[in-house]
Every structure is written in C-alpha cells, then in structure tokens.
Design goal:
The protein is built from 8 helices and 2 strands. It is mostly helical.
Length: 181
C-alpha cells in the first residue's frame, strides 16, 4: 500500500523540519526534510508512464580500447552523437566536461595550417596539398562536436560546486534521490 510509506515520509519530514526550525544553522536537517518530502510526494503520486525506452551508452575501458577516439578526440564523441540521432534518439544526456578547447597540434602550427588551406600555394604537389588539408581538417574538433550537439536535444550533466553546505565527502550516489543528477 502506498499510503504507509507516504505517511512515514511525511512524519519524518515534519520531525526534521521541527528540529531544524530550532536550529537555523542546520542546512543538513533542512536538506533531509526536503528530500523526505520529495520522496513522500513520489510515493503518493505513484509510478508515472515513461517513454518506451531509455538507452544508456557507457563508454567504458573496453569501448575506449576498441574506439580510443571516443574520449581522445571530439570527433569521436560527435560521431557517436550523430549515430544516436540517426537511430532516433529523442534526447541525449552527456555526463562529461570539456574544460579546455581541443588542441591536437601546437597553436602556431594550427594557425599556419589554417592560413595555408585558406590560400594554398599553387606549386605544392597534390599529395602534399591533400595531406595538409586532411591535417588541418582534424583541428576543428570543437566545431564538429558543437555541430553534432546542436543537431538534437542535448543536456550536459555535471557538477560545479556545492551550495548546500553539505561536505563533499557526504555527497555520494547512494544519497541521491528522485530527480537529482
């Protein structure tokens, strides 16, 4: 019966709220009260219909061994996203962070390559021209990934800090509740 867990959660939330009302410096108690109320809401509301399927793509050690560019280059992740869009994925959540631009070559060399490709020297042998053009093409990984991300609906899920006052060592997946990413 769903009513028993709901009443239990409500009682716990009320007790925690009353206890924290006496000590306004207690954000942890308020957080417990909030999560207890949220849990209670989900128990009372009951299960909700979801989409037909959720697909989790895990890029693990085996996948990176077989396809190292999935994590080494932005083009690999862009290729994965394009394939997911082709297969009809309605939404993709990416749980990774890219803190810096992709830089496969030293910046001065990349700039020289881009300038040369924009205005190639006519006397350059065709083989060298092709090689330089292919090399320059791989320097646009960030643009390629951005284009792939804009082709569908993407959510980036990552954590930048803790505003709740809960110490980092207490933030564990086992403490997660409904709706937390």
């Amino acid at each position: 019966m769903r009513l028993a867990p709901a009443l239990g959660g409500l009682v716990v939330a009320l007790v925690l709220a009353a206890a924290s009302a006496r000590d306004e410096r207690s954000p942890r108690t308020w957080a417990l009260a909030e999560t207890s109320l949220v849990d209670t809401w989900f128990h009372v509301r009951g299960p909700q219909a979801t989409q037909d399927a959720v697909l989790v793509v895990l890029v693990d050690d085996e996948a990176t061994a077989a396809h190292p560019d999935l994590v080494e280059r932005r083009e690999g992740m862009a290729r994965l996203l394009r394939r997911l869009w082709e297969l009809g994925a309605p939404h993709v959540v990416l749980d990774f962070m890219i803190p810096t631009p992709e830089q496969l070559l030293p910046a001065p060399l990349t700039e020289d390559l881009r300038e040369w490709v924009a205005a190639p020297e006519p006397e350059t042998p065709p083989v060298a021209t092709g090689l330089l053009q292919r090399t320059e093409a791989i320097t646009h990984g960030d643009d390629v990934l951005e284009e792939a991300m804009r082709a569908g609906e993407v959510t980036l899920a990552f954590h930048l800090g803790v505003a709740s006052g809960v110490p980092i060592e207490e933030l564990k997946l086992t403490r997660g509740t409904y709706g937390q990413v």
